[in-house]
Write a structure and sequence with these properties.
alpha+beta, eleven-stranded mixed sheet, three-stranded antiparallel sheet, 9 helices, 19 strands, globular
Length: 299
């Protein structure tokens, strides 16, 4: 809404703070602001059916005419896309686009944990009592993962929260080599994952989500959690459980914003210092898929 302070994010390559272009910002502030908006959000908008219905028109061929305006309004670089804009069949088809070869080189250092996607990253220390707390939202690890036994291994460990905005590339990838188990789908609502919503108390980490366990030689057991969000009706997994490679595509989100959570066992991942410092200051950092976000620890 007019007069609201901008949402600032840190550019990792320069350290500069920039105002994020928020897709549908006025609607977001309305839904997570006045009581009438909060009531509408709780009774209708956060229900999964709403997001599915919202996404359907974005998959129709006529929505392809909206692609140039979507690209221009959010500052997306069309040269990074795998195909020319007029080759996409719908807005959702463009939203789930692959990138052109070589656009996102993968860090191949075996001691590096790489970002699973493009987005805005926060680093958090997992509490010793087995909870993850982010401004406005607290969730226990057993609830987040849907597995109390698996959750115990991450108590006191590290969490990376990668928030994908509508402008971002919306495919996600494996952060290291290893063996991936089958994904576990957990039900839930579809609240916004944006800081505006989280600051208003939206329980974003309780949204619909998929949980995958990755056994990594360098980092031990890593939990990968894809969290759906408002206007994201579907999370698609494209990988086959078993041996996987760092940077390999894992899946993608359909239209809307979303979040990826990476959980590491205590001592197994040392987050990069710049990300830790920015997170301590309450700032998300813009990172690119395949770039290093941490290194292997002593275990």
């Amino acid at each position: 809404m007019s007069g609201s302070p901008p949402v600032l994010v840190r550019v990792r390559t320069t350290g500069a703070l920039v105002a994020e272009r928020v897709f549908g910002e006025d609607s977001l502030r309305l839904l997570y602001g006045p009581p009438a908006g909060r009531l509408l959000e709780r009774l209708l908008v956060s229900r999964p059916l709403f997001s599915r219905l919202y996404g359907l028109p974005k998959r129709l061929a006529r929505s392809r005419r909206d692609i140039p305006r979507f690209v221009a309004s959010l500052g997306i670089d069309p040269a990074e896309a795998e195909l020319p804009l007029d080759a996409y069949h719908s807005l959702d088809d463009f939203f789930t686009r692959r990138l052109a070869p070589g656009v996102r080189p993968i860090d191949r250092d075996p001691a590096s944990l790489v970002s699973p996607g493009d987005g805005r990253l926060l680093v958090l220390r997992l509490e010793s009592d087995g909870a993850l707390t982010i401004k406005g939202c607290r969730i226990s690890l057993p609830e987040l993962l849907g597995d109390p036994v698996a959750a115990r291994r991450y108590q006191g460990g590290t969490a990376f929260l990668l928030r994908l905005a509508p402008a971002d590339y919306h495919r996600f990838h494996f952060p290291d080599d290893g063996v991936a188990g089958p994904p576990l789908a957990l039900p839930g609502p579809l609240h916004s994952v944006h800081p505006i919503a989280r600051a208003a108390g939206a329980p974003s980490l309780r949204n619909q989500r998929h949980v995958t366990s990755l056994a990594s030689a360098a980092f031990g057991r890593v939990a990968l959690v894809e969290v759906g969000a408002l206007a994201v009706g579907t999370i698609i997994q494209t990988f086959v459980p078993g041996p996987i490679k760092r940077g390999q595509e894992k899946g993608y989100f359909r239209f809307g914003g979303s979040t990826i959570v990476v959980l590491g066992e205590p001592g197994r991942i040392v987050p990069d210092p710049d990300l830790v410092a920015a997170s301590a200051a309450g700032l998300e950092t813009l990172v690119a898929v395949g770039t290093r976000i941490g290194r292997s620890g002593p275990g």
